Amino acid sequence: MDQVSLGKAGPTVSKIGLGCMGMSGMYGPSDRTESIATFHAALDAGMTLIDTGDFYGMGHNEMLIGEALKGQDRDRVTLSVKFGALRDAAGSWLGYDCRPKAVRNFLAYTLQRLGVDHIDIYRPARLDPDVPIEETVGAIADLVKAGYVRHIGLSELGSETIRRAAAVHPISDLQIEYSLISRGIEDDILPTCRALGIGITAYGVLSRGLISGHWQKGAAERGDFRAASPRFQEGNVDRNLALVDALKRVSDAKGASVAQIAIAWVAAQGEDIVPLIGARRRDRLAEALGSQSVRLTPEDLVAIERAVPRDAASGARYPEAQLAHMDSERH
User: Fold this and answer.
1) Which CATH number is 32's domain given?
2) Mean pLDDT (whole number) for 63-80
3) Are 164 and 133 in contact (CB under 8 A)?
4) Hey, which residues are catalytic here?
5) Secondary structure letter of residue 224 according to DSSP
6) 201-257, pLDDT tens digit by residue?
7) Quick check: helix, strand or coil at residue 4?
8) How many domains in the chain?
9) Which of 1, 6, 216, 285 is deepest in the core (most CB within 10 A)?
């Protein structure tokens, strides 16, 4: 697999990364054995960037990855970890805590659950409105000096906050949603990151399965994030699936799957953009990896944008209550 530098200050990673959130219940039940087998298949395929969060399954995801890492070469893997989100015993979201002492506490538990002595990229999951980003990044910088963290990343931040963070310590990458139907970063955030030499790790490249070519209306189960996601709601989902049908005509002509075209489109937007694939099954992983063989011509890109015009999606990418707390959504 091709390797790329994750920003000017970041590590060299695989051109496609593995996002592990779905292995810990965010999209309904998952199979532990199949999740670990998928993780190993990803490593065998040359994927080195592994993304998780300490709040995925309230620590479950880190423990799962820790189990999957046993017997593997730790130096082959670039572990990217988000922290700061608070949850209660029922799984509800309670806000964020990115105070310096909280940063140190979160990291200590993460190292224990993963069974490693350092994290390659450590990043706050969101901006804590009560803590200046300079304090949070400064705390992670202290952990870099102590050897517990290698690089500092960010997630879902707006341009002003990104600049403030980068003034404290070099930033490897910004993790943010980016797909054919979520293109808001193109206006300001992406140019800001490029000016600062900050890479992009793009999550939601298949919009949580909506533009994968596999989603069926009404498939979200209880406990699945998509049951509350605006784009999957009645009145929106049919219009969004019509976009998928249009994209399928392009993918069929190209001899690829819808998912492969959608992933290839994100990858084609720049060498500084690394798509994260949220596969939790080996067959879905294999399909996603097939996107590397898809070479999009200028004519293909025109056809794709004709099928799925910018801002054509119906519904926001998160419920309004969540968007209200996202720094990346402030203009």
Assistant:
1) 3.20.20.100
2) 96
3) yes
4) 56
5) B
6) 999 999 988 999 898 776 665 567 677 788 888 889 989 999 999 999 999 999 999
7) strand
8) 1
9) 6
